[in-house]
Every structure is written in C-alpha cells, then in structure tokens.
Design brief:
Length: 72
C-alpha cells in the first residue's frame, strides 16, 4: 500500500513539475506526455494481469533482504 502511494506521488510530482517549469497549464506536449504515460502504464498492467498475474504479485511484494533505502 505504501509503495502504491509513493508511486502515485511520484507521478503527480512529474505531472505538476512539468507544467510548473513551462509556466502554465496550456502546454499541449505536456498533456500528451502525461496521457502517454497513463495509457502506457494501463496497457502494461492489463496485459500483465491477463498473461502473467503471478509476476505482478511477485513484483508487488518486498523481497527478503531488501534494504530500507531501496523501499522508501
């Protein structure tokens, strides 16, 4: 759960910083970039959930011996 929240925050940070750097919300290429990220991630998750759900489950767990700096 914590990793999902951190992942969501990272995507939000990329989203907001992209528009802050150019000085406004009226940047078509920025919206296209964010749209492509969302579409690509959605397609990837749907494909993996249908073809290899065990891999998604393994990748979603923290492995034994994982350092705390690698998690947070």
């Amino acid at each position: 759960m914590k990793l999902k929240i951190l992942g969501g925050l990272a995507i939000t940070l990329v989203f907001i910083s992209s528009f802050l750097l150019v000085g406004g919300w009226y940047w078509f290429r920025g919206w296209a970039f964010i749209g492509l990220l969302i579409v690509g991630q959605t397609i990837s998750m749907l494909y993996m959930s249908r073809n290899n759900p065990n891999l998604l489950m393994r990748r979603g767990r923290i492995g034994k011996g994982t350092k705390t700096w690698d998690i947070e």
